[in-house]
Design a protein that fits this description.
81 residues
Length: 81
Amino acid sequence: MANAAFAKPLTPSPELEAVVGAGPYPRTEVVKKLWEYIKKHNLQNPKNKRNILADDKLRPVFGKDEVTMFEMTKLVSNHLS
């Protein structure tokens, strides 16, 4: 299986769990749930849709107020084990 690493269930940190819910989840599912949260709470920067604006739940995960989509994936990886 080529994408075994992506399919492996991982446990979100308490900070990430506050956004995506209790795991474990495969990495792909975590990203999907993050996007659902971002869209539901309208957290894409209106001037640049590739940037995500952190609310009170996302700030502890991202460590800052705004991240790019690419940064988001990297930062979320730090919250999965």
